[in-house]
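Hi there,

I know you've been waiting on this one. I reran it after we fixed the sequence typo, so this is the corrected version. Both the input and the resulting structure follow.
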Amino acid sequence: MDVFGTVVGTIDLASKLINYVKTFKGGKQNRLELISELSALKTLLEIMSGRLSNTNVDGSGDDISNNLVKAGIKGPLNACYGALKFTVDSLERTAQKYTGKPPPFGRIIRDLKWPFRQEDIKAMLGKIERLKSLIMLALQTSLTEFIEKAHNELVIVGANVEDIKSIISSLRLIREVRG
């Protein structure tokens, strides 16, 4: 999967997981912490998705995608996708075992007890936090490279403007001498 596809897939998994976590009963504090981390991760990924999709419209999206890949985004994104997929699959297996039906489960899963222990949630929260940090670092690196490139292009434009000013000034001087 490319960077954009992985981002979109991870956003979908985060949304699905948030909905599942809200539905189960028990482990209220664990579930609230998990929802908070997942929501922050989802927001970060939506920012990345927006940046990637907006730049693709004008044909320059490859720069940002390439910068993100160079900044090492694929590893954290794939790990994030894998962690969320594992968790969603675990919850779906638990619900399927109880209901005997495949997803979607509807309101039936409201009767299910939260299947994760405190230690599982702490590990999951720690992993999500580390992955969010890595994703933010990759975004910052990409943004820094983009800003440096834009700055260099502005310097070139500024030099060209100065050249044009000089030519215009010379033309005025020639006109005055002739005129």
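Quick highlight: The chain is about 85% helix and 0% strand.

Best,
R. S.
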